[in-house]
């Protein structure tokens, strides 16, 4: 007779969960596995809210399993370490991003690209190898294999650092892989949201000339004066867009809504690269001819491996890059989701789990 999830994972935990596709979150008692020899237990201090959390709690991707505890921008303090653990010590700060497991032996895993492993285990809305569900960071603790933990230094702000574990690596990884990280390059960022504002910060730290491309003129002052972008384009202003044609070495597109790609492709120089990191729920139209006449590339990227995620955090620490956040109590999370759905976030909600999560 098989064991119940509570028997398999007997360590008590408490968080907030969605019970159905209404997406309404409420208090939830559940369990996690006992800390193993290769595991660490983290007391969660902060957890960022990603737009994917909103999609998942409402089953907009069609694969949601309830009850669901979202959250994969998790930071906290290490409270338990297994006997084989060498990465962190009790009392040190650590984080958990989008994944908590992979096969460890495929080409992706051996190339430090666990995020592309076909057996990669997501931090929530997935199942461990024993069949029990994974639960995310809208909770008081998490147990994770040390390999999938990210070290955070003592002097780095954990609340504003938490979103880097998803939003940060989602833009850092493609910028590095596609070579869009060289000083003097002309670089475009489409969408000034959770991912986009961090992309601007990384691009400036790489020494690039940065143009923000947005549908909203109201974001121009913020982009240039606060985030340090060099210029700003309103994507529906045909004169502005035409004047900028053929001027960019690369563009990162963070938009998750349906939008035309042709105007962006036309902004690229010969050999320019348009990299998609947003996830629209409807297919986008891709015109091929403009790619042929300039040997242009449209690519994609999804988060990053553990080694690169640590490199990203270390780079962010060195260059003092954090997310712009609004810290909220746990009981505000449903309102935050409503605001996120309306685009009313500047630029990332972060839950103060340690101080506001109460049974």
UniProtKB/TrEMBL annotation:
InterPro entries reported for this sequence: ADH-like_C, ADH-like_N, CAD-like, ER, GroES-like_sf, NAD(P)-bd_dom_sf
Statement: the UniProt record of this protein carries the keyword Metal-binding: yes
Domain (Enoyl reductase (ER)) ranges: 23-351
GO biological process, one term: lignin biosynthetic process
Requisite cofactors: Zn(2+)
Pfam families in the record: ADH_N (PF08240), ADH_zinc_N (PF00107)
Keywords: Metal-binding, Oxidoreductase, Zinc
Protein's recorded name: Enoyl reductase (ER) domain-containing protein
Organism for this UniProt entry: Kingdonia uniflora
